[in-house]
Amino acid sequence: MLTSQKLSYLQAKRSVIAAVFLGLIFSTFQIIIDLYDQRSESNKTITQVIDIMRETAAQAVYNVNEPLARKVVNGLFQYKPVRLVRIVDDELNETMAEMERPKTREVSP
Q1: Is the Cβ–Cβ distance between 76 and 48 less than 8 Å?
Q2: Assigned CATH for 8-100
């Protein structure tokens, strides 16, 4: 009887195939979960940074202080995930400071 026809060989072959298949499925689920966790963490960090700068930005608008507004924009732009910062005086409908980073496909570590 050939080795490839023995019952133990067939069972071992099927077990290895099943293990590889299940490993791929579970790895895919883990990667998806990690992706959502990373996005959530990034959003939380951005929200915290914005909350820190909110008071200074409000002060810049209230006092119509464009140099201070530019400092706030420059400070927010130190964080790579930030793509667009715009400080607008609602009463005058005037943009006091603005900066935009081109959209890239680069993934940060």
Answers
A1: no
A2: 3.30.110
